[in-house]
Amino acid sequence: MSDRVHLIYNPERECMSRDELHAWQSARLRETVRREYDNVPMYRARMDEKGVKPEDIRSVDDLRYLPFMEKTDLRDYYPFDLLASPQSEIVRIQGSSGTTGKPIVAGYTRNDIDVWSEMMARTLTAAGCTRDDKVQVAYGLGLFTGGFGAYQGADRIGAMVVPMSSGNTQRQIMMMKDLGVTMLCCTPSYATYLGETIREMGLVPGRDLKLKAGCFGAEPWTEAMRQHLEELLGIDACDIYGLTEIAGPGVAFDCLEKHGMHINEDHVIAEIINPATGEPLPYGEKGELVFTTITKTGMPMLRYRTHDICSLTDKPCECGRTFARMSRITGRTDDMLIIRGVNVFPSQIESVLIKTQGVAPHYMLVVDRVNNSDTLEVQVELTEEMFSDTVGHIENVRRYISEQIKSVVGISAKVTLNAPKSMPRSEGKAKRVIDNRKI
Length: 439
Ligand code: ADP
Ligand code: ZN
Fold this sequence. Notes:
Blueprint: H1 11-14, H2 18-39, H3 41-50, H4 71-76, E1 90-96, E2 104-109, H5 110-126, E3 134-137, H6 145-157, E4 160-163, H7 169-179, E5 183-186, H8 188-200, H9 205-208, E6 213-217, H10 223-233, E7 236-243, E8 248-254, E9 261-263, E10 268-273, E11 280-281, E12 287-293, E13 304-310, E14 312-313, E15 325-326, E16 331-332, E17 337-339, E18 342-344, H11 346-354, E19 359-370, E20 373-382, H12 384-387, H13 391-409, E21 414-418, E22 433-435
Parallel strand pairs: 3-4, 3-5, 5-6, 6-7, 19-22, 20-21
Antiparallel strand pairs: 1-2, 7-8, 8-9, 9-15, 10-11, 10-12, 12-13, 13-16, 14-15, 17-18, 19-20
């Protein structure tokens, strides 16, 4: 039992019984499939090809008969051919940097902005936000969904919003201190950078700042990184997940139990599939996360393959919410590195580095191929204390990291220890991998 106080923004929805939810989802799924079939020629063709008619989809249990959608669809039908509403109904465009290539854009109707704001209001509330809080938005405000999402959620709650956008670190900290900011929204890598800079400026979080919680997401991070951030900033660090195609941040969020992110299941249906075969997998098994939006009208997504890897559970949570939870994202089907035949996820290496004394959580993985054999180099930064230590200790750190990587990941890596502050800092999504192999 935990003694946490759990605030819930919309208990009627967030705590509905699983049976009620099933009926709710089924009704909205039917409407969404009909809307998509009637308005999006590409999806109608895909359903016809599979021999599926809208009336065949009667409940959530029939979801598996629907064809998938993919990121490539957003590129192929760029910018407006996936809209299920007239362009005059679209009140916002958001886009993704396209970590994996050309940008993609999504159109939102007024209804969709409302849905997204509600999801983000729930997210911030779960981290402890009320109208008395001051929320600093240090996610980029622009086409990227992070900034607007956090802004809308805090605004919906009626909190005081400080829309800083990303960057300008010194000024961020000045505002945080002067305004008495209580909640921070940014990527975990930027939170690390902010935390370090706060310390360097001689500020002590519990004494000079009023921060109590952070909603960090938009990129993968580990439990070890959570602990690091909680100590560095003296806060509850909550994970928040989302993607442009589905809404933006707030699709799923940590409650203060912090053991899996509750999915806003009255707005999206989540499935886990085997990425190789497309077959749905039961709760508890790890696979690729697939989402179906059931309340969006601008650009609904049916069985959208995220390529993010995680597992789901519908076990009850102490907080009282009934929404299923997703585990942390342990990798993406497309950022999984295959090095000498071994599957390697950057998150595995991050967890080793964060548990290592003497290195800072700034790292880069460089993969190459030398004499037909793959090589992995792990570059990581030493802390000031370790850097000024004797060479003997530094060698121990290097050996320790190599051994740990070997035991956790199963391959040997070259470990390069860099001087403090020599590696690039990220203000948005961190880039952690350079793959120089010519495939
Ligand atoms: P892009 O990264 O292509 O610019 P988005 O900004 O929409 O597109 O990012 C969505 C992706 O970011 C997700 O599919 C997921 O891979 C990653 N992501 C978002 N939030 C999290 C999180 N909390 N943990 C891990 N990965 C996340
Ligand atoms: Zn919970």
